[in-house]
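Aim 2 progress update. The chain analyzed this quarter is reproduced below.
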Amino acid sequence: GYKDPAAVIIGSTLEEHLRQLCGKNGLPTTAGDKPKKADQLNADLANASVYSKLDLKSVTSWLDLRNKAAHGKYSQYTKEQVQLMIQSVQDFMSRNPA
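Predicted structure tokens:
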């Protein structure tokens, strides 16, 4: 029943998983002294063929939903989309263990 915090939490979990996947695959997680943003980690992982371009697009959409939740754009997504995001991110993480 808490779609907005759930979207932020699963999005944060996804971002941390992307960081761990980069580490596992020898990809940098920083640019200079600043941490890379999740979108860049996602692109780096797909470009290194850690996962497919289809997964790249899915991760991009999940990160977008998380950003909408984090910035108070609650009417731009539904509870059902958050539920699907949770299931999909869990599946993605099990298929791409860090």
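The radius of gyration is 13 Å. The chain is about 70% helix and 5% strand. These observations will guide the mutagenesis experiments scheduled for the next reporting period.
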